[in-house]
Amino acid sequence: MRSFKRILPELLSFLLCFSALCFGAAALYWGTAYHSHQDAALRRELAGSLDTLIVGASHALNGVDPQVLDEALDTSSYNLSGSLMPMHGRYVLLKKELGRNPVKTVYLEIAADTLLRNSGEEYAEGDEPIIARLDTLGERLAYATQYLDLEDWRNLASRVMLRSVQTLFKMARREDPVQAGRGFQPLEAHNVTASARMEPERYAIEELNPQTVSELEQIVSLCREKQVRVILLVVPESHVRLAKTRELDRFHQWMKQFALEHGCEYSNFNLLRDRWTRFSDAESFYDEGHLSAQGAQAFSEALRDWMRGDQERVQFYESYDQALRDNPYSQESWEEET
Amino acid sequence: MDELLEILLDIDPDVDYETAEDLIDGKLLNSLSILQLIAEICDHFDIEISPKWMRNENFNSARKIWEMIQAIQEED
Amino acid sequence: MQITSFSFFLFLIAVLALYYLVPRRFQWGVLLLASLVFSLSQGAKQMIFLGFTALSVYAGARRIQALSDAEKEKRAKTSFSAEEKKGYKQAGKRRRKRVMLLVLLSNLLLLLVFKYLGFFMDQVNLVAGFLTGSPVLGRVSLLAPLGISFYTFQMIGYLVSVYWGNIRAERSFFRLLLFCSFFPQITQGPISEFSDLSGQLFAEHSLKEADFFPGAERLLWGFFKKMVVADALAPCVQDVFANYAQYAAPTVLIGAFLYSVQIYADFSGYMDIMCGLCRMMGIRLTENFTRPYFSKSIAEYWRRWHISLGAWFKRYVYYPVGISRWNRNLGKWAKRRFGQRLGDTIPATVALTVVWLATGLWHGASWAYIIWGLVNGLFIILSLWLEPIYAKGRSFFHVQEHPKIWRLFQVLRTFFLVTLIKVLPEVGSLRDGFGLVGRIFSGPMLVHSLQGLLPFVEWGVLTRILFFLAACLGTLCMLLHSLAQARGWHARHSGRRARFLRVLRCCILAFLILTFGVQNSWGGGGFLYAQF
User: Fold this and answer.
1) How confident is the model at residue C192 (pLDDT cuts 50, 70, 90)?
2) Can chain B be said to touch chain C, i.e. do they have 3 or more Cβ pairs within 8 angstroms?
3) Whose CA is closest to C92, among C74, C109, C110, C112?
4) What pLDDT band is residue B4 in, cutting at 50, 70 and 90?
5) Which residues is A77 bridged to in the sheet?
6) Side-chain half-sphere of A125: how many Cα atoms within 13 Å?
7) d(CA C518, CA C6)
8) ipTM
9) Domain containing residue B23
10) What is the CATH number of domain A18-337?
């Protein structure tokens, strides 16, 4: 032990200095709001006034405009969504907001890949922004302790350090801190019209992540406890994406069954009958899976109409297979297979 | 030893082999000149130098090379 | 277990703690246990083949030693005539040689099967296809045990050294197993001599500040080079290699230079990690690099790059071939036919050709690597042959060897040549390799924007720019570090100021590794030389 004492002073000095550097960097990032997801201050300001929450990953973040819903439905909405937001992250943020707002409705966005993803393989990409959106160091530590394994602590630390460097750059460029809207982040449009070759992908429902399903049940259970209406929502993707993916009806059936068993509503806007005219692959999408600002406007209007019960304006296919027959890209993809 | 010095001077006359102690480490003998040296030693002293002798310490000075030759002759 | 993973980091802490906690006479046991755990983490197959090599070489070396000792004892006790003595010695040598060859060939066969069976079958199918129109053998793909090229060569070196009588065979199997499986060097070397490493591996080491902290700093420096520089440049290089036909000449040249930086940062970074770790334990590993890009010739480059491999080939291939009787006779014949100069150069030429053919094959089972090896050999052989002409030219033009401008020219010329040769087998096929090199000389020279010059960086995304800048800054730091070393500047290790500066350097390195390096390693994190 005497030999360890020799190296202790310098080792401790290093650990202290390094920790100070890292905490300083984290404090710079968490203490400012230069990144678009840093909305903790805004949510604190709105606390007590929100009656509708939209929670999901990037499909919802870029696809649902709370303003469109509020103007038509006379609600006060907030889009809590985040890019790659894992299910446990949705639970934590939702629980926080349900605790301080008179929420009556929660739109819970679920995409086909949500159920298959394993956040443990994403290097804490979805977890880091959630941690940044919490209010105190205690909440952050509690989240990390509960939901991240040891390797992801390192990955989280790396992401936070990079954010702090980006924050420094933004400060140096004198960028304004983020003026967040109600959480909604519109994207620019790109033409995602199919290229010459479309390679079909199979939706592997057998790879459903049981942990994600369990966390989804936890969210539904929480909402039921608070007597909040839960609507499971599928945000539209491009016609090209739909034409390429096989066996999506397995996802659709699973969702219908889940909604039935857990007393929630379910609406799949990928199956809108008029999607071929309401959305165009040339203008309504940022990429194959995400709506552009224009597409988000169209979708939010469709959601508004559905919430108003306007069955003339909003009609649905029964299945993906049915939709596929009207999909302008389907003929090509069938020819590929034959 | 004189014969060895003659052989070394034939290979590179610019080196003072009587005093130099870093023929290999100081790159005064390179891998080409080592092969030339070995060929001349084998012919002149009628010995076979096996690879086990090919270590830097055996070639760093004329004296060391001479000791190596004598050791090989004794072995034979 | 990836070297850049968090689990390896925890593994290192555990090994270091245990190493200094156990009684010193058991320290080598801790290293053996750690090495076996490390090998096991690569898969059970790893253990089987490693075990075979260790066991066969151990048994072979012990047998050779026993035969040698018995012969010496008999010669001492019995009075032989000169003829009888010679005959007895030769018979003994034959017996020992048989054992040595059996063990050597069985281990080489294992290496050949794993690394070259696929290549060999492809060539058979190529010829069969040419003659009969269809392949005759099915495609076989075997995953070689990690580091098989490295530890096989290291153990062959040990076996041959025992056969030559340079060292005595190690009596303890477990000590030899440690030498074979020592985890800091099993995947990428350095290839050590038993006489150099064993003394340190089995000695008792006390914890010394003078070794621990410089070792820790070097470890961090190695991780910095690998994770912040090499891993960041990897996708840029891959982009240029994949799209060289569409890029302008300056872009392709930059891509090639970036590859030179990447592979140096990757391989020397690994060496720094392992040498640093070993130094923390009081063990000095063989150095594998001494500023290779400061070389003034290709020959010098190969004395500074992957030094232990070069030393191995020199000791076990170049000299045995070079000083063999048949090669000397070839030299004598050439001297009689063509004169002194050719007579002296031909034996070296033959030995060098064998060495570079073997070096190319060692690096990869493909024609691309064979050609790469022979191209390197060609440059070295040509410089041997043309040295008298160069000397006359320098004398005629009054070019002195030492002025800085001439040395700078030599360094830049060598770096350029080495880069062009290096990329040949890395682009994909040999045709692509030559295609890329050709594009440097024949592609369009004008570039109109930064995006056009460096299309592999996403200039619109701040994060991507930051990672590229970090890699460039890291490259600059590596250059400055090498320049400082070349001038003999060393960081002081003792004194309060020295300790303070070291803590500061380590903090900065650790911060940069955490910020940029960890994220770069998510793409895979493997080392380039581990594939060999």
Assistant:
1) very high
2) yes
3) C74
4) confident
5) A52
6) 12
7) 9
8) 0.92
9) 2-75
10) 3.40.50.1110
Cα gap C456→C496, rounded to integer Å: 45
Q: Give which of A11, A17, A28 to mutate to test C binding, by max C Cβ within 10 Å.
A: A17
CA of residue A308 relative to chain centroid, distance: 25
Q: Which residues on chain C are in Cβ contact (under 8 Å) with A25?
A: 511
Decide: A301 and A163 in contact? Cβ < 8 Å. Answer: no
Spatial neighbors of C406 by CB under 8 A, at least 6 apart, are C399, C400
Residue of B24, B29, B32 to mutate when probing chain C, most C C-beta within 10 A: B32
CA distance A258 to chain C (A): 35
The Cα–Cα gap between C39 and C41 comes to 5
Cβ atoms C345, B32 nearer than 8 A = yes
Q: β-strand A285-287 against A245-246: which pairing, if any?
A: unpaired
Domain count, chain B: 1
Residues of C in contact with B34 (CB under 8 A): 319, 322
Cβ contacts (< 8 Å) between B38 and chain C: which residues? Answer: 322-323, 328
* Chain C residues inside the 8 Å CB shell of A3: 20, 206-207
The per-residue pLDDT for C491 is 65
The CB-side HSE value for A179 (13 A sphere, CA atoms) comes to 2
A176: left (phi over 0), alpha (psi -120 to 50) or beta: beta
User: Does the structure show a pLDDT above 60 at A334?
Assistant: no
Tokens of C313: 């080939």
Report d(CA C242, CA C456) in Å as an integer. 11
- ω before C184 within 30° of 0 (cis)? no
Secondary structure in 3-state letters for C443-491: CCCCCCCHHHHCCCCCCCCHHHHHHHHHHHHHHHHHHHHHHHHHCCCCC
Residue whose structure tokens are 């880069």: C419
DSSP-based three-state secondary structure for C410: helix
Q: Domain containing B16 — which CATH number?
A: 1.10.1200.10
